[in-house]
Amino acid sequence: MTRFRFLLPALLASLTLIVSPFAMAQSAEREWDAYRDALERGERQANYWQYGWTGFYATTLAVNAYQASEASDSNDRFDARVGAVKSALALGGMFFDRQPHPEARRELERLYAEDDLALARALIEQTAAVERERRSWRARVGSLIVNTAGGLVIGIGDDRPSDGAISFATGMLINELQIWTQPRQAGVALNNFQPARLSMGEMHFDYEYAFVVAPNQVGMHIRY
To answer: Residues 131, 190: contact at Cβ < 8 Å?
Structure first.
């Protein structure tokens, strides 16, 4: 029994030397797959988001521009002029406010070719930070200013407080939908990995894991 007790650590060490390179390669490849899949899906959603909201604001601009001159009611014409200004500002913002995922996906492919996993992790963390920033209160300041101004112009300038409040609330709701339909795949990929520790007597092994669900199978990504 004593002899076996001394042989066991040596046996475990030998198995570790044999298995670890293969396990590390498998874990790294799964991590690469998770990051690449996240940014590919993020880029796809970013394109849908960009084209969808650009088309929406272009349509509302055209409708408001038409209503501003052709509506039969003077209040409707006034509201349409305010709406046209708001839509034009929002449309202009879409051309300058780009999602980070397409560029991040291209950069990740370059890092994958160079097999630089450390920089890939940093890229995912940076993209996730941009996602969080685009959902923070700062992302709402511009819309708050524009919609407040539009509501005041209608409510006070045209002496229609209730219509001004509706204009403000509608504009803020649309902006909120625009914010929450943005892609967030990088943050999800980053948060999927949870820290854990495997202990075998005096030996401790720190690692991170993430469950991955796919059609007809459930897997686990491990990195350490």
So the answer is: no
Q: How far is residue 16's CA from residue 23's CA, in Å, rounded to a whole number?
A: 10
Supply the DSSP string of 119-171, one letter for each residue.
HHHHHHHHHHHHHHHTTSTHHHHHHHHHHHHHHHIIIIISS-HHHHHHHHHHH
Please check whether residue 221 is in contact with residue 34, taking contact to mean a CB–CB distance below 8 angstroms: yes
User: How many residues does this entry show for the chain?
Assistant: 224
pLDDT band, very low/low/confident/very high, at 205 (cuts 50, 70, 90): low
Residues 180 and 78: their CA atoms lie apart, in Å, by 30
* 127 and 174 Cβ atoms separated by less than 8 Å: no
The tokens of 215 are what? 């059609």
Distance of CA 146 to the CA centre of its chain: 25
Do 32 and 120 meet the contact criterion of CB atoms below 8 Å apart? Answer: yes
- Mean per-residue pLDDT, 40-48: 97
